[in-house]
Amino acid sequence: MSHSEESGMKTHYICQTYIAQKPTHDGQASLKIGKQFQYTTAAEAQNRAEREAQSKDCAGADAYMVSEDPNSGEVGTPTFLVRLGSVPEFDDF
Q: For the chain, what are the domain ranges?
């Protein structure tokens, strides 16, 4: 049994893509979430992020893991597996 199963925590492996938005009136371009996929392993999430980052419509992609307490619904801070292309700063996440 893994540590996360023993403590009741559930780990989620996520691939999240970003698309560039047109610059606003002040000339600042921004990113918005494009797609989000959930996987059962870190390798699957990372592989998908690498594939998605090569797409012409994708500005960037993250693969990360988060732990969730199913009893409270509380989700921890993400641990990034890979960050590719243009991605938001961690504080913006």
A: 3-92
Calpha distance 9→12 (Å, rounded)? 10
User: Residue 57, by phi and psi: left (phi above 0), alpha (psi -120 to 50) or beta?
Assistant: alpha
To 5 degrees, how large is the angle CA 39–CA 42–CA 46?
90
Which residues have C-beta within 8 Å of that of residue 52, sequence separation ≥ 6? Answer: 15, 17, 35, 58, 61
At residue 2, the pLDDT reads: 43
Which runs of consecutive H residues, i.e. helices, occur in 1-93? 3-6, 42-53
CB atoms closer than 10 angstroms to residue 63: 27
Banded model confidence at residue 30, pLDDT cuts 50, 70, 90:
confident
Q: 3-12 as b/e, with b when 16 or more CB fall inside 10 Å?
A: eeeeeebebe
